[in-house]
Amino acid sequence: LAELPARGPGADMIGRTVGLLVEMYGHLQPSGWRISDRPGRDTRRARSWLGEDLDALEEFTQGYEGLLKVQAVGPW
Asked: At the top level of its lineage, which domain of life is listed (predicted)?
């Protein structure tokens, strides 16, 4: 799944990872992404970009059988 960081905050690798988190949220500050206690505009934007990307991927790969990679960052 291609990363498109030129779209803005939430479309970069950190934003994409924030979009994948469950019951953890992030918000963007001048110094970078921070974990927050509730979803805000930045978390919603990141999840929206990820959802749009996954929808486009689903359309593009109709009938494809094989492996796909969705990259995330973090200590895993």
From this structure: Bacteria
Give the amino acid at 67. L
The CA distance from 25 to 39, in Å, is: 5
- Nearest CA to 10 out of 76, 58, 39 is that of 39
- Alpha-carbon gap, residue 3 to 6, rounded angstroms: 9
Using CA atoms, how far apart are residues 54 and 30, in angstroms rounded to an integer? 28
pLDDT digits (tens, 9 = 90+) for 14-39: 999 999 999 999 999 999 999 999 99
Where exactly are the structural domains of the chain?
5-60
Q: Among residues 61, 75, 56, 64, which one has the least CA distance to residue 11? A: 56
